[in-house]
């Protein structure tokens, strides 16, 4: 993250787009450095879901930009819930109880947002693997070669499907 406050064009674009999605309550405290931190966390999330990638904010494909914007909103909601836990309180005086609990409502929203966020990343990874044709080793051909190997090495006493 740049300490001097200079953002690359791609970082600046993502910060501005993410800022537009922020709740009004968060916009007052959303600095470009904070939003860039959220963006980097989302990019790390994308990189860590198998198959692994090594994207940076600047090398991010344009197909991932909506996922990054959604992920930034998700993390902003998480930190809003953390702040709400500090504001929540329960007060009681001779049978009259006042309870302010914002976290329960935010937790329901977070659970729904998290499912969508995880699904967006995994679906991107699935389409990436399918479009590329798969990654990893080729499928070994054991069935046909294993029978021939056993027949040669063990003789006719060990053959498939014979008595």
State the main characteristics.
single chain, 163 residues, mainly alpha, two-stranded antiparallel sheet, 6 helices, flat
Q: Strands, helices and their partners?
A:
Layout: H1 9-21, H2 24-27, H3 32-48, H4 65-87, E1 89-93, E2 96-100, H5 103-132, H6 143-154
Antiparallel strand pairs: 1-2
Helix pairs in contact: 1-3, 1-4, 3-4, 4-5
Number of domains: 1
| Element-by-element helix/strand order | HHHHEEHH
Side by side, the strands of the main sheet go 1-2
Shape: flat
Describe this structure in words.
With 163 residues, this protein is mainly α. It has one domain. Helix content is 61%, strand content 6%. Strands 1-2 form a two-stranded antiparallel sheet. The protein is flat. The relative contact order is 0.10.
Brief characterization of the structure:
This protein has about 160 residues and is mainly alpha-helical. It is built from six helices and two strands; from the N terminus they run ααααββαα. It has helices at about 10-20, 25, 30-50, 65-85, 105-130, 145-155; strands spanning about 90-95, 95-100.
